[in-house]
Amino acid sequence: MSAGKYKKLKEIISQHEKAVTALSGGVDSTLLAKASYDILGDNALAVTIDNGLMSSCDVENAVQIASEIGVRHQLVKDNFLGDERLAKNPPSRCYICKKRIAEILKNIAGKEGMETLFDGTNADDVGGDRPGIKALTEEGVKTPLAEAGFTKDDIRDEAKKLGLSNHDRYSNTCLATRIPYGRELTKKKLEQIDQAEGVLRDLGIKQFRVRNHCHIARIESFRDDFPNIIGNSEHILEGFRNIGFSYVNLDLQSYDGK
Question: Quick check: 53 and 28 in contact, CB under 8 A?
Fold first, then answer.
């Protein structure tokens, strides 16, 4: 099923001479960057924005996958927490963040003599209240995967066919999503989450979230991972406490994928 959609994706991309693709390191943006490079060659540029909200693992993955694809790649560092509106963590946080991302991409595109901006939003992402997607639309950022009808499953299927190393990598979101709206975002809080999730990742757990509730860390994971987490509880407790958490809770409600 994804073969026809991939053909359509390439047709959409081929309508543009040059394009900048936002590359997060996830499978969605990876597939888009791969297709863009295959069609446009050096007229395709992948950009990763290390904005202080991404996990260190995601940044590393983006650099690695860009090298695997062969696409031109820029890693841009910026401090999004310097924006007080974003740091206050309002419900419009994603809207503010995506607006800033679009601004950075436009600036890079201008220097490169490019006009087209691509984002890895897929068909499953469209619909409902999605302030981040609204911001991208307002800024003229195009979403070829969604336009071609690619669902998340389609993307994984096509990425596997193309031999992309991250085809089975679980989805991730920015670290700010681990902190409830209204609680200020700080570098320290985000680093705590990043380091805590690194502890779980080292145990071989692939899909999880560590929610930051002040001195309490709440782990969300798939139910199949509960035995691994409980079996390594002392190791996790020690690691999390060294990071700055006083208490560590395992949410008995299975992770819902958000």
Answer: no
Q: How far apart are CA 100 and CA 182, in angstroms?
A: 20
- Report H helices in the chain: 2-13, 27-40, 56-69, 84-87, 93-112, 131-138, 144-147, 152-161, 187-201, 226-231, 233-243
**Stretch 132-139: mean pLDDT:** 92
- Tell me the one-letter amino acid at 99: K
Q: Degrees (nearest 5) of the Cα angle 130, 133, 138?
A: 125
Angle subtended at Cα 247 by Cα 243 and Cα 248, rounded to the nearest 5 degrees: 85
Residue among 92, 93, 68 nearest 81 (CA): 93
- pLDDT, averaged across the chain: 94
pLDDT (average), residues 245-256: 90
Contacts of 234 (CB under 8 A, 6+ apart): none
